[in-house]
């Protein structure tokens, strides 16, 4: 279906046929949800042996009784696990609670209220802003919006953020104090940053406000679907450019073991970690060390973690294949949309024709298929072209993913034809 070259009569015929198909779908009263990237029950079952793994032995290898208070940095064995995931030294890791989002919020709040490593607190700047590669992760944007930190869109490319745009913005605006990055299998595009992009990001600290920080949310560091995709080390790049203080890395086991009961990690330079811990001392007496010990025993060796993630991949691959096959079959020879083919992570990013995403999502919802709201992948929920839709196939069973995608492609076709008729 190529609607740019279609006559009005052809568009009207297509609209009539597609509307009839859509009405038949609506009669089925579906209730399907592909809104967020949650692990499925089958994935969660992979970690069921966490339950009871301690068998009454609550002492860590260094003798720490994990049932008691203390240990702001987290257990040494848990920090080792985080170091393996992030590929950094364990002494540069803090192991926290169940959510890397909590650690990110805490880090942004630290920069905003107190500043990092002796630099000016961001709240004292005239108009503090973050660079936001788009489409991106809505929860990152929510943190900035809640604290009143401005957000500036930077386009995503197939190798990461548009670095020409990012460098120009940082060079010319001293109020830019951060950038959000999901560097491997980006949410939602699935892009992994190239070596050149990582190196140029590491150099931003040379031209930015001294308080500038890269928030490196490596949520999908070990979530490969097929062969391992290598992400260049941001730590090595910043050390080479004498900008080690400019990056703060995050990861967790939220999509590795139990989504609500994992372990989160933050890694950075000693100066940045000291700033974080200074505030942590006033807000906590330490993380859940019992849960940290459970995870450390469950993944006693890094090879065990890799084998565990291969099991995740085997569950996820058919679902991603289903999404991509439906898109290719429906739009491979059309002008109705563009999409990424991720090699890992949790999402497929689809771009409709301009001005169609909101209508596609409304049509799908009315037919019983919930999608992430239009604009969610942009700051303030505003997609300038109303194009991007994030598809999350991980949670439903495969047959539900297949049904949801059948509805989705029909809604894309119907919304696109109707939009073209309005313009014709």
UniProtKB/TrEMBL annotation:
Organism whose genome encodes this protein:
Microbulbifer halophilus
The organism's lineage?
Answer: Bacteria, Pseudomonadati, Pseudomonadota, Gammaproteobacteria, Cellvibrionales
- Enumerate the UniProt keywords alphabetically: Aminotransferase, Transferase
Q: Does the keyword Nucleotide-binding apply?
A: no
Q: Which InterPro entries match?
A: AspAT_Ic (IPR024551), PyrdxlP-dep_Trfase (IPR015424), PyrdxlP-dep_Trfase_major (IPR015421), PyrdxlP-dep_Trfase_small (IPR015422)
Pfam families to which the protein is assigned, alphabetical: Asp_aminotransf (PF12897)
Put simply, this protein is called Aminotransferase class I/II-fold pyridoxal phosphate-dependent enzyme
Q: Name one GO molecular function term.
A: transaminase activity
